[in-house]
Amino acid sequence: MIKKKLSIVDIANKLNISKTTVSFILNGRAREKRISEELVERVLKFVKEVGYKPNSLAKSLRTGKSHIIGLMVENIADPFFANIARYIEDRAYKNGYRIIYCSTDNDADKTRDLIAMFRDRHVDGYIIAPPVGVEEDIAELLKDDLPVVLFDRYFPGIDCSYVVTDNLDSTYTATEYLVEQGYKKIAFITLESHQTQMQARLDGYKKALEQNNLNPYIKEVAFNQDVKYMSEPIADFLKNNKDLDAIIFGTNRIGTCGLKVIQNLDIRIPDDVAIISFDDHDVFELYSPSITAIAQPVEEIAANTINILLSKLDSSTSNIDQKKVTLQNDLIYRGSSQVNAKLSAVK
Amino acid sequence: MIKKKLSIVDIANKLNISKTTVSFILNGRAREKRISEELVERVLKFVKEVGYKPNSLAKSLRTGKSHIIGLMVENIADPFFANIARYIEDRAYKNGYRIIYCSTDNDADKTRDLIAMFRDRHVDGYIIAPPVGVEEDIAELLKDDLPVVLFDRYFPGIDCSYVVTDNLDSTYTATEYLVEQGYKKIAFITLESHQTQMQARLDGYKKALEQNNLNPYIKEVAFNQDVKYMSEPIADFLKNNKDLDAIIFGTNRIGTCGLKVIQNLDIRIPDDVAIISFDDHDVFELYSPSITAIAQPVEEIAANTINILLSKLDSSTSNIDQKKVTLQNDLIYRGSSQVNAKLSAVK
DNA sequence: TAGAATCAATTTATCGATTTACCAATAATT
DNA sequence: AATTATTGGTAAATCGATAAATTGATTCTA
Predict the structure, then answer these.
(1) How far is CA A82 from the centre of its chain?
(2) Has residue B233 got a pLDDT over 90?
């Protein structure tokens, strides 16, 4: 015996009043609509008693609002994105919004599909780490005046709010730091990607090398969900460049993957090569020696992103000015990149 | 100028036919409804041309179906859950289902709230790692014949499909293994939790110690999103039990957190203590010495879970038999728990 | 005292789809 | 000849809410 869920009509019938009245009362418009105190109380009491909850689907269909925010990350299994998602979810929840998230896999088609789904589920706002190829879809959302905030990467050609970090500066600083320590053959192992943040990381590295008249050693590996397909190209690269004295990894996945390869090849850190990786990670902190990392301010990224979106949702006025935030990353100096660490490791 | 989205009525009007006909054609019921080939083609062509997509919200309101699966994990930032979520999402996507996930934080109230949200957004099925306290809400879903699959933990009193691993057996085996290697003062550091899986892990440990007439050393720490609040009690425990010769950690978070504490206290692994942790993790593989871990078959858990749910969704017949799956975990032997590792470390 | 305003709700339209019930014309069956 | 099926669709009801328009009784205003 399935207990059919109550609808507003059932409530109205049971109380012998109109459903509109019920609706007004439940939406706090009783005073405005001059509905008697007595009736208001009677309705609220009854609603509470039977545990009636309005069907939010029908509500959304009518109002166009859902109190849901769509969050699209590259891969929810990546700790960087998972942590951001987590933080955003918390803040949103406390502000009465629910989050639904999904992974784009950096696949433009899948992303388009997901945007469409979000859209016709009437999500109130969009937080997206967009893959290359969805520029038009983002533009479309903006044209229709929907609140969008991008993060981690952005589209230079599109006037849309975003929160990113200063990637170029970070790898520049990291590379400079290695150069200062006397390293000369510094490699950059990164993901094959045209996204702004990945390009900027590469550019920062190149800029530092150029300024110091050093040769770049760049290896771009194709992304693969399965780590073993990324290990091989890295291993090949390292075998073919035995004289490297430092490596910068472009992401945490590449970094952890690279560490495994290095361990397998019996390359010693920092005696044989110094290491710096983008993104901090438990592994980098616990590894021996600990790995110097470019830590992105995860909480700050998340906080800025959700704040911008919430303010857009608040202001009924469709404010045209898009907020663009670039945060500074933090270079966490650890043993893997320090010359004196070499000494202590030898001793 | 906002380009208003097309509705089925617009399509019907433009073609001078009834919206019903359009609906039938788009839902593949043209043949059944004896609609002429010619008209079918005309409609399909036009729909494609203008890029019309039915509003899924309205569709859901009418049909009660959404092709969306709700996935509730404890914490999406935990790699164990993130990976399961990822895998489930992939499989679901390939089967025409979208996933919306969220974190329960093991908070019964929040979970109840989220279940309600899923419910009135008309998700077609539920995959839940349930916190203690939502037994009745799960029972309610089942009573209303909604497809539910639990994973990671379950409720012994409720007849509901689930996929879990043999937690008791795993910690039993791990503990036995340590005992065989000659360890006598074996501690179990775990999360304070009444969930079945955490209880089973504890029970496996206790059982092994009992059978070997050894004393248990148990430390339960309260969960906290912020790792530092978990480090302190662990540190205190270790300081007060300097004579321990082995430690088993109950989860990967406790494990990585514990490793940091151990590093800070300058306790050597495995010379001072042997270590085994539940759940595998990059850190455990890369740590030096590498950490023995009880690896849960993440892909298998995810595959079983989503398969059960999909089969429930497929069979229009509400099959009453709930599927209950218990998978075996894999003890990955590494340096941190091996006596011979001690030797090689000393040498 | 006619007309306007207020009161306290109600009736009806609407969101955008699906589903049920029905129709009129012709063909087939009893 | 009367009934039933088939054909190719359409009109109206429905899902569960909100929003706009309306109502009938009373009270205020000019």
Answers:
(1) 8
(2) yes
Q: Does B89 touch chain A (CB under 8 A)?
A: yes
Closest-CA residue to A71 (of B100, B66, B69):
B100
pLDDT tens-digit readout, A161-209: 999 999 999 999 999 999 999 999 999 999 999 999 999 999 999 999 9
Q: Which positions of strand C lie within 7 Å of protein CB atoms?
A: 7-12, 14-21
Q: How do residues B145-156 score in pLDDT, each as one tens digit?
A: 889 999 999 999
Chain A partners of B86 at a C-beta cutoff of 8 Å?
75-77, 103, 225
Both tokens assigned to A38: 């007595």
Contact of B155 with B135, CB cutoff 8 Å:
yes
Same fold, B63-165+298-327 and B167-296+331-346: yes
* Chains A, B: CB pairs < 8 Å: 121
Torsion, Cα of B143, B148, B149, B150 (10° steps): -70
B3 confidence band (pLDDT: 50, 70, 90): low
Nucleotide nearest to B61 (CA to C1'): D15
A273 CB-side CA count, 13 A: 25
Spatial strand order in the sheet of B68-73: A324-327, A162-165, A148-151, A125-128, A68-73, A98-103, B98-103, B68-73, B125-128, B148-151, B162-165, B324-327
Helix axes B56-63, A108-120, angle to 10 degrees: 60
Domains of chain A, by residue range, sit at 8-54, 63-165+298-327, 167-296+331-346
In chain A, what is the straight-line distance between the N-terminal and C-terminal CA atoms, in Å?
77
Architecture of the CATH domain A8-54:
Orthogonal Bundle (1.10)
Confidence of residue A226 (pLDDT cuts 50, 70, 90): confident
The C1' atom of C13 and the CA atom of B330 lie apart, in whole Å, by 63
CA dist A78 and A76 (Å) reads: 5
Superfamily of domain covering B63-165+298-327: Response regulator (3.40.50.2300)
Give the pTM: 0.88
Level-2 CATH architecture, domain B167-296+331-346: 3-Layer(aba) Sandwich (3.40)
Give the pair of three-digit tokens for residue B106.
């093991």
In b/e form, how buried is each residue of B177-209, taking b as 16+ CB within 10 angstroms?
A: bbbebebeebbbbbbebebbbbebbbebbbbbb
- Per-residue pLDDT, averaged over B219-244, amounts to 93
CB B129 within 8 A of CB B103: no
Cis peptide bond upstream of B289, omega within 30: yes
3-state helix, strand, coil split of chain B in percent (to 5) is 50, 15, 35
Q: Cis peptide before B156, with omega less than 30 degrees from 0?
A: no
